[in-house]
Amino acid sequence: MLLKNVSNSMKTIVSGFFLSALGTITLHAQPLQCESKNSPQYLAQICSEKFKDLRKELNELQHTSYLVTDAPLRLLADTHQLWFNRMQQCKNSACYKQQLNLRIEDLNFYTSMNQSLTQHYLKFEHGQIAQQPIQLKVHQLTKDRIKIEGFAYRNPNNRLESQAIPLLAYTTPDQKNEILDNEHDCKYQLNFQKALLVVNTTQSGCERFKGVYRLYD
Question: Could you say which residues form the signal peptide (predicted)?
Fold first, then answer.
């Protein structure tokens, strides 16, 4: 039944992505604009003087990442928007600081690591990135070893260790369709398609990572 539903929705997911890409000649996430007098009210906290150095570091790193990364530029743009959406949920200074540092960490990863050996996926629902964002990464560690890790993002006001639910599995190329999450002992069935990854499970309590993911390449 899941595969049938995936087949029916595949065109919506893939075509929706390409339609949006057609309207974006240059993929570029906007830097944090704090100099303008017309800055939105929700930027008041992040634009305060105490975050000046972090903002500068983030904006410079963001610009650099678009020039040097071998990760898909659409991935940088979409993950930036997801991060920005989470940051707007912050209710205190500690949360804002954490989110700035986390995005800087992400961009350092995208610019310093060889992304050609990593497949990046975001969960999609109804042709759009899922409202509860989930990111999966499939790393080719060696010829015979694959690392699959994922993060299901939660409220950024939670304690740092509970802001995301992790998934971690190690497997081999010939066994990557059936994995065991080392974090929660959840078994998942992975169906790799040309532009999609379908994750399924029959275990109760493991449904969070179940769904359809789109490949960024």
Answer: 1-29
- Alpha carbons 138 and 146: distance in angstroms, whole number: 7
Structure tokens at 180: 């065991």
Selected residue with higher pLDDT from 114 and 14: 114
Q: 43 falls in which pLDDT band (50, 70, 90)?
A: confident
Distance between CA atoms of 53 and 56, rounded to whole angstroms?
A: 5
Domain ranges of the chain: 2-216
From start to end of the chain, where are the E strands? 118-125, 128-129, 134-142, 145-153, 164-171, 178-181, 186-192, 196-200, 211-216
d(CA 129, CA 22): 17
Task: Say which residue the tokens 């989930």 belong to.
Answer: 134
Of 62, 48, 158, 66, which Cα lies nearest the Cα of 104?
62
* Cα 34 to Cα 40: distance, rounded to the nearest angstrom: 9
